[in-house]
Each structure stands twice: as C-alpha cells, then as structure tokens.
Amino acid sequence: VQLVESGGGLVEPGGSLRLSCAASGFTVSTYVMSWYRQAPGKERELVARIFGAGGSTDYADSMKGRFTVSRDNGKNTVDLQMNSLEPEDTGVYYCKAVRLGRQYWGQGTQVTVSS
Question: What is the pLDDT of residue 18?
Fold first, then answer.
C-alpha cells in the first residue's frame, strides 16, 4: 500500500493549487480518503474527507467553500482543489486512507502561501 502526494508549491495569497494523492495497492473508492495538513508548530488537522462508494464529502469549517475534495476511480487518485488560499493555509498536506481499522499515510507535500 502506498500513497504519494503531489502538487504542492509556493502560491500567492488568493491563488489556487490542486493537490493529488495517487494510491497503489488498494482501491480508493473502498476507503475513507482524507486530506490533513500540519502547519509549523501546530498539530495535524483534518482538511477534508471523501467516503467510500457513495463519495460523500465533508470539510473542516475553515475550508468550506474554498476547498473541494474529489476522487477519480479510474486513476485511483484523490484530489484536493484549493482556492482563495491564505497564508494560514501554509503547511504540509498529507493524504490518509482508512478502512476497517487500518490506516495509511502519504509522505506529504508542502504548500506555502506567501507574497
């Protein structure tokens, strides 16, 4: 099982980034797939989740309306579209897969929002 995040980088405030999490060794549509982030000096926090076959989603309050999580079953990937980025969104973004008590994490991708 492997999760590989990509798409991070440096963006100005108000800009957008699209992160992608490529999964191997399992099928993303059978897992709860989540994005977390960890800002410098802070604990890791949940950003967004997408659930199982139905594909329902939920978001942390501060991300609602700005971030969108989606899944591509054909590519076995989970993406996070981030719009209207703020300096407070800076951090390492991680992909997580959970099913039946098992969980897997990716290595993370750095997002820096700065002018």
Answer: 98
